[in-house]
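Running log. JK asked me to keep both predictions on one page so they can be read side by side. First protein, sequence followed by its tokens:
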Amino acid sequence: MSLWSHVFQRLVVVAAAPGVFSFAFAQTPTPIDEISQHLAGMKKQINDVSVGVAQREILAIETAGTLDRAAQAETRIDAKQANWDEAVGLLDGFREKNPDQPRVKEFQLQAAVYRWAQARAWHDQHALFPADPAIRAHEVSALDDAIARLRAVVSDEPGVLPDNIRFRLAWALADRADLEDAKAPTRLARDEEALKLLEKLPTEPRLAGYHGLIKAELLRRSGKLPEAAALITEASKIDPPPPEAEVLDVSVRVLTDARKYTEAKSVVNASKLPPAAKALTLARIALAEARAPGDGGRAAAEKELLQQVQALRILKAPETRIALAEWVASGVEPDDLVDPEAWDALAEGTEIRGDSVKAAGFEEKAAARAEKNGGNEAAAGYRLRGAGFFFQAGKYEEADALLAKVVGDPHAGASRPKAGLLQCLARGRALAAGAPGVTSQAYAEALDRQIREFPDDPTAIEARWLLGNVEQARGDREKAKKLWTAIPPTAARWIDARLALADAMRRNIESQFATADDDALAPEFAAASKFLTDSQEAARSRAESDQVELLLREARLELVPKLGKPRQARDFLDRCNGMNLTTSQRYRARLGRTIALAALGRYVEAEREAQQHPTWADPASRPDFLDAIRLLDLCASNSPTDLQQRRFGLVVRLLVQPLLREGEDSALDADQRSELTFRLARALLFQGDPRGAQETLRGWSLPRRTADDRLLRDLADLYSRLEVYELAIDVNRLRLRNLAAGSPSWFDARYNLALTYYRLGRRKEALQLIEGTSILHPDLGGGSLQEKFIRLRQRLSTAQ
């Protein structure tokens, strides 16, 4: 398919009755608000059977034209296609409702024009993104539909309308043939059919020039270059002539096919094409010459090709992608002695066409050539890009090996720190993908080396952030804190580090609720609160969104039961509501306020908010919803009174039940649904409905992901409350297998296992468990845990 401009898309299609129908030439894009203002009213008039069919036909065409103008004004491909689809649907719908309409052919022609326009848009998109096969499939489908519609109404009759139909069918056939292999029988058949359709000259003067250009293109394909050249000359003299760009496009193809490269360049250089279009056309001429060298030889053609590509790169024009992709598709590869820039350009084009691994190989050739020229720093840059292509292709081991060359080269210059960070990322991705031989230790070492070797480089900030996540996952909060607090307030990652630290401090406090006294947790809570206050002060010069996130964290901390101040949390959230919030932030603030109302004893208001939750829920924020439910569960299980526990349970039920009833429409994954079902069962139990809790758990299973200790502890607690002690024992044993011996949670699991043995009447096993624990750890965990163990041992001794 030729890359003729969008002027053709707006070509006139003149109706049989002038003045009644006008398929306009160039159409000024209509503002978007025209659609919203006019479409609804026009569609209503189109369907008004009290109006004559002829008048409603005019309205239908005008409405479709409005949608066409909207499509042309759109920059997003999906929006363009949607407008044209609607235009075609409107015309087809009118024909179906009015089978006796007088102008069926005009409607089919206009619908075919819109389908052709869709194909053209897809073609332009494919030129930019040739690696996406779906784009070409869309183009083929649109052209096939256009051809079918036009074949249904084509005829040999004279007149403006039949001329238009034959012309459009010939054009669509030529475009469709160009999508097939050069020697495919169907391609040749379509070209021949198109030429036959163009045998009669059109009676409409505005079609004559384009008619000649299409015929010239078809003759060029069949090798009849002199006839094609004559037609181009004739078309350019017609009044009005086709635009210069359209004439030039076909003319250059004919000249390059005739190997008249110097003449082709002269024509282009003398034209008034925009700089990017001129550079692209000259690159195509150079590419054709490189495939079949002229007097200047292949080396000169390749040099010219590279110059035009570099000119496009300087312009930062989208035509750069087209030129590079066409270079790769041609199969022309530079000589090994050519400058490395040629191999680099070929690598970029190869990546555009979807072969990142091959692109990496070309970058290595560029690097090798650069090294021969003494450009070690340039060679490092090419290898860095090659590693990026490997990374993009998921070849992390190959990327790691290539990056090691850059990182280990003291002459690599600015590429060294970038290569070091990319190597870290490659190891992280390989680790996540389960690649053999890649360990978390190797990943952490790479990050640590990045920080040590490039402490002042911006890449060290990202390395600190990533290594902090590694240490956090390992359970070393202090190392994570040290790394994250070293990130300067001016860095983009500063807010991420602050939020991660705040969340980690809060989670640590909540995880100790079952094992530590309130007095022991108070200092940690105060430290977390001060950290957030200091962070908020430091964030005054940052974006408002960062300040909102810190306010939300402050509110979340104040909602921690027994330690926080719900009234203060509500005040923080009220401050948020006076700021510019994203959808997610607004949703989290409202969830927090609902919990604060319940914690303040304003149960009716909290329950009303929970009942209305489906009207203000944000499906994209399901993890935040799950966190809110966990917090409500924590509040209920630590409530000082039965009334408060019941009301917290009711809020959970009102929030969760409607969501679970939505089924697949709830946007919940399997793990989220599993945990929410479990939390609902606990809520019912808090409300004093054990039978409802049991029914809720019927057929339930643990989330497929590794369940954390908090969920397992709550599950064991649920089974104990339901007096299903055997299952509680199994869950506590699972906790012990997962936990580090001697940790507070490990002592808690041992204590709860002993308590469950006691409740089940297995006193000997309970006593043995306590004694065994005291031998290994005489302090029995210390604090409140030690007191619990001692009291239970006393009860067991008394019972004996």
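And the second, directly underneath as requested:
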Amino acid sequence: MYTSPAPLPKEHNPSPALRGMAWRLLQVLAAVLLLLGLVMAGLGAWLVTLGGSLYFVLAGIAMVAAAALVLGGRAVAGVALFAAVVAGTVAWALWEIASKGWMPVWGVDLASRSGVLLGLLALMAVALALMPRPPHPTRTGHVPRSQRGPVMVGLALLGLAVAVPMGLTRWAPAFAQPAIHLTQAPPPAVAPDAVATTTFGRAASAPGAEEWTAYGGSNLGQRFAQASQITRDNVGQLEPAWTFRTGDMAPNERVFFAFQNTPLKIGDSLYVCSSSGQVFALHPATGTQQWHFDPAVPLEAMGPLFSVACRAVAYHETPPAAAGQGMATDTAPPPECPRRILLATVDSRLIALDAATGQTCPSFGMAGTVDLGEGMGNQAPGLSSNTSGPVVVGNRVIVGQQVSDNQRRDAPSGVVRAYDVQTGALVWAWDATRTDRPQQALAAGEIWPRGTPNVWTVISADESLGLVYLPTGNSANDHYGADRNAEEDRYTSAVVAVDAATGQARWHYRTVDHDLWDYDLGAQPTLMDMEIDGRMRRVLLQGTKTGSIFVLDAATGEPLRPVEQRSAPQGATPGDRTAPTQPQSVALPNFAGAPQPPGAEPERLTEAHLFGMTPIDALMCRIRFRQMRYEGIYTPPTEEPGGMLLFPGTIGGLNWGGLAVNPDLQILVTNHSRLPNVVTLIPRAQVTDQPVGSGGQRVDQDVAPQAGSPYGVTRPIWLSMLDVPCIAPPWGYLAATDLRTGQLLWSQPLGTGYDSGPLGIPTRLKITMGTTNIGGAVNTASGLTFIAAAQDDFLRAFDTRNGELLWEARLPAGGQASPMTYMHDGRQYVAIAAGGHARLKTTLGDSVVVYALPR
């Protein structure tokens, strides 16, 4: 007897309207896939001709085929083929990521390589799920295979793409570098190599817990505080104690402010210097303003600066014996300004202020001011300026200056001058081409030698040795050196020790030979007693943009840790030259890029290191990489159209945030950026931009003129079309090194993408990925490290020994400054300038924020 086939089980089918919408959505997605595939195949073929990866052209062709299947009515086959492409993409991404060593936050790298394709696949799979199933069985009576298979595969892949990278990123610090807990006891305290520090200035030696007497804590530049009330056990309880607003904001969009100040804490006052050089005296416990001084810097002096900043002021206190000789009597007035603040402004003034009242000290210079522009031959206001502040050493106030980069070979001199702190009289002047007569004044009408290496960053001193340490930059044009003389080359990118009393050079150590890369010394030299071969030595630590940290005898400049001369790429522009070798410190880690162990070569980029938020911008970065000249660190500049890849870039490596040490634990803490530039020399005939001083304005220049040389130069940070770095993160690190062994204790990415993102749009994703960072750290005797610096607006506290994040607080603006800490009336405070950095595109503001434990 014939029986009809059993009825098919009923399944829910979407409504006709929903099915029609699903089909239209699938067609649109297929069209997007087709377009994306065509672009990937075309650009991928271009990349292959340049010697690049085959992945993009193969994936693009397969995506075109998958789109064609979908548009031709074979939706299941098309989506399945695209799923295979996505699976292959993930496999290729993991292979490339592994080839560069599973860097921290590699999950972000994986997500960027596969995220767009995974998202497109998931949407296609969902659309496919909403399509109607065939209404009839096949001849064999079997129902066709459900379309839910591709759906589940797509959704599973999408879930993995989201969950795995976020999970891996969350734990990236532990994966990147296991923390090592120190078990050694702290070394015994070592007395300074001289008589008691009370015979020296207030800033001469490491301050007590109550004070912070110079930019780096003291003239030693250690960034170490004796304050220990805040510990790893209670740091999580920190809360805002007070906030002060300076009201000092950039006057217009053509001036770039950066609130980079580290306050001083002297007695019952906290001294703050805002971006335009305004000085505020505040009560340390409440933030109440005690006085305010405004130097009224003219707008025209701010234009030539990369960033308008005031990193520090200096402090001098007349010794009690000298003050006693000038005590008030019935016939004599009280001594003038026995405690004074020294301020250097960007319009070339050195000003002495009474620390108690903020009034100028009339007998200093002319009515309280020394004209730093005298003898400079400035072609325009602000072409030479000071942004790092003066340093007081004994009865000398010493001031260097920056010269606006790459404007002109005949720029003002890089001279460093020392003045009598009481009268403002010039005592000595050091210039790279005038080292034989530092105490000889200029003749009438004479100017200091033009275009010589300058000292733009913070100066250090060791009064126990009677030495001042000058970290130098380059001659006036960074990327062309054929016209430099022997003296300029000798003192370029060097630390120079000069006699504090006379300015006579005692020794120098050059960190780059014939610098063509702008690898000037931005980090303040750090002086400390360091354990070497079982005994304590007074050393100078010099961090560099090239990632090396040199350990030198502070008295003689002799390297106390091994330095090797390593071969460097050759082939400079016609007429110029490159040094055959360059020095590299090999006893400590290298921080040119991703931290490398002692002795290893600095990180060298490959195509696998490149990055993009989408396949298209990633492809364009890869094509550009293949067009550039790049042979590792010290690749010479070129006039070829592709330019030269400069890595590490112009901000380092290590920059003006400097080093922070814990001398008790013999630990060095560093933060550095990992970001390349593209440097291209432009032949003079093609340069139309005029230099500052000849009608040009820096903000309007497409090409830095380097007037007086055969080339102008462009050197933008290497970003994709979406304003994201073209190399995969981390773009910034925080690390700690054991100075006894030279080994890296820990390293981790510093900063999240919360306040930054593609096209400058904040992602609001608090995922640790490591950002560019400007500013430094401070260590405490209780074993804490405080730092902001990153492109997100947070101040953080870490355990110095193992890198554990213990606390963080949201700042009202970017923290591109170095924090400091002090005790006052039995309570420890942590202070930071939170005003952002216009060039770094962080949140701008004008706040000083201070934290403390609850009372």
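Observation for JK regarding the second prediction: The first helix runs from residue 16 to 49.
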